[in-house]
Every structure is written in C-alpha cells, then in structure tokens.
Write a structure and sequence with these properties.
This is BclB C-terminal domain-containing protein. By secondary structure, the chain is mostly beta strands. It is 0% helix and 47% strand.
C-alpha cells in the first residue's frame, strides 16, 4: 500500500510508492483576515472641470477674484478683509471623516485666455481653507502652494510638503481656493481664465 495517508494511487501493481504530502488540515474559521491599511487616506483630488476659473489681480498686485474648486466644478467666492471666507459663500467644501493632518499639496494651472497682457510676474496660489467643526468661517491654512510662471497655453505645476502639517479633526470642513497675485512695477492689473487642479495628502 502507498505510504501517503493510505491513498490507493494505483502504485501497488507497479510495486512503487509515491509521495504526495504531507497534507495539512486548516480550519477555515481560524484563517486570519487580510490586513487592511487604515492609517492614511489616499490623495484627495480637486478639479475645476469645464467651468474653469477666472482670476484677477488689482493695480496693486493683490488678489481680486477668488475661486473655490471641488470635484469637477468651481465657483466664484469672496474673502473678507482679514482673509477669511464666510461659509455662505462656500459651496465646494467637503467634510473630514477622521482626525489627521495635511502633509503635502500639489497644484496645476492651465492658462486658456488672457484678457489683457500680463503685467508683472503673476503667481497663482492654491490654498486649503478650513472651517473647524461648528464654525461658519473658512480660514486660510498653511497648506498652500504657489504656481509660477503663468503664461498663455502652458500648464504650470507645483508641489509642496506642508511644514508644519495642518491638523484637522472629524467634522471640519475643507475647501480648495485658487487666487492670483502679481509683483513688479507700475499697474499690476491682470485678468485671465484657465483650468485648475490640485491634490492634498491627508494622513
């Protein structure tokens, strides 16, 4: 008889012995569940979609129009003199599901139309605004990146490690806001249109 758990493998008539084992019995109820990494969230993407963004700077080079971008949409918004944005002017925010920190931000801007020749050096800023749980005001955070240079028909990109990381709590609201500024001599009034995208790492 074959010496493999008494299995009749047909070897006897050839006077042979085969080895197929050893076999190991496993209780399916004791098989460990696969490990799932819940320690970090994937990158959260933002895009202006077909609506795009219309950015401006004043004669002094400070930001004029602000645009919030969401997940394929964008809307015009306004900031208060102190830089905050009231919640009634925000429509593209998302709610944070757990405590964490924003550790990196990247952004890109494609210039589609320039309505007047660009004056000075124009910079586009992508910045995360945060409204703490229970607050009706969005405040700019340290999670921002500046995109430069801005030129017709080009895609400008930038990436930044956020230091120190921006801490967020469950229930906070976050929104990505694009703005523009200009530096140089003379009148720094600018207006241009383009598509905007960004991403943040939330750990």
């Amino acid at each position: 008889m074959c010496s493999n758990n008494h299995i009749n493998c047909g070897c006897l008539k050839f006077n042979k012995k085969g080895t197929l084992g050893p076999f190991e019995a496993i209780d399916v109820e004791n098989i460990p569940a696969p490990t799932v990494n819940t320690g970090s969230l994937p990158m959260i993407p933002f895009a202006s979609g077909v609506t795009g963004v219309f950015l401006t700077t004043t004669a002094a080079g400070v930001s004029g129009e602000l645009y919030e971008i969401g997940f394929g949409n964008s809307n015009f918004t306004l900031a208060l003199p102190d830089g905050d944005i009231p919640s009634n002017l925000i429509t593209e925010a998302f709610s944070v599901t757990r405590a964490g920190s924003i550790t990196a931000i990247s952004a890109a801007f494609t210039t589609v139309s320039i309505f007047v020749p660009l004056a000075g050096t124009v910079t586009v800023r992508a910045q995360v605004y945060r409204a703490a749980k229970g607050s009706n005001v969005f405040t700019p955070t340290n999670a921002f990146v500046d995109i430069v240079p801005i030129a017709m028909g080009t895609i400008a990109r930038a990436l930044k490690i956020v230091t120190p990381p921006v801490l967020v709590e469950a229930g906070d609201l976050l929104v990505m806001v694009f703005s523009a500024s200009a530096t140089g001599a003379g009148d720094l009034t600018n207006s241009f249109f383009g598509s905007a995208s960004a991403g943040i790492t939330l750990e």
